[in-house]
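Q: Structure for this?
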Amino acid sequence: MDDDLLGLIYELLNHRDLSVEQEKIVVEELELHGCCADRIEFERRVLLRFREATSQGGECPKRLRTKIQALLEEI
Amino acid sequence: MDLARRREFKEKALPLVDELYGAALRMSRNPQAAEDLVAEAFAKAWKSLDQFQPGTNMRAWLYRILTNAYINTYRKKHREPEKVSVDAYEKPEDFHLFNRLSSEAGGVSPDPVQTVVDRLTDEDFRKALDGLAEEYRTAVVLYDLQGLSYQEAADSLDVPIGTVRSRLSRGRKILQKSLWRHAQDAGLAPAGAPGA
């Protein structure tokens, strides 16, 4: 399996750095690698689980927000 | 500093506190350190606000300051030893979690999303990320999790785009190997060496 396949799938999943033309090229490359829809869905789900899991508990503590607001007021 | 610029900073930067804190927490793996980093980043940004070009991306600018604060202050000050992943001495290049799990690809499950990915806990995913060596973790946090572009991540880390890409590539594969181990520990995947 090509070493860059995972990178190609992530290019497609993250999408934001791709133009329409580039996206088409990535899809074609993935097809050339025999990458199936199940694989893309699998990687999409893994990425989402990472995002969900790491966003939990990531809310800024109230005291930090208060500190920053005070800093912006006083300078 | 003119009032309009200060007002713009407050309007645009304050709503980003939560996500910057989340990024700092994933980079430092320590809530108190994350708090200190975000406070430091805001103080630096506020003091150097005249260097910010109006109309450019304030979010990317703040991430750059935050990442610099992490690299230059926290890591060096605390001389935190690089956390070496158990995978650091192994080659993750040929490891594909999907192939190990999917019967379609010679693995063990007809639906690896339902039987494994959805049954791993959030803690499994967090531990996998936290166990990643720092240079890979920061790249993954900035690009895959926080949604920066390659250029923004490269600017934040002060490395070329190619370095960001290569760190992402290796980091993702190490993460997949780590998930495989968590799946094994949870009895969701067969025991044995991960191999290729």
